[in-house]
Amino acid sequence: MQRDDRKPYRRSGSGLTAITEFGPIASLARKARELDALDRALRQTLPSPLREQVRFANLKDGRLVFLAPSPALAARLRLLQTQILSTARAVGTYASSVTVKVAPQPPTEIVPDRSKPLSPAAASHLRAAAASTTDPELRELFLELASIAEISDS
Fold it and tell me: Which branch of life, at top level (predicted)?
């Protein structure tokens, strides 16, 4: 029987490598960081109600592209084009125009109300289920649920 003196392969380095360090993903992450920084710089100079409602979307071919939730806000943003372009130049970004597209805000997620009380009929069915089962643990759970319905009725 031969003895295997080879050492197991161990990767050099310290732990996992972030996915943002790989080719196309790295350039995409870098572009996203740059656009986020530009977004913060540009929106910071806008008046308060407009600042929270519009979104900076992209910088493409010397155009700063913004998204506004309504035509009225888009018009207000277009009036500030000179201010936006001077701010962009101040932070080192070349842009010759501002484009504003009307795009409604994505709907906010509506979380359903899960705290609806059990009806007296449901409590009655739970007590009947508890009486008909032979499993003591399941019977206890049914009765506990039924007691919650009784408490919420009072």
Answer: Bacteria
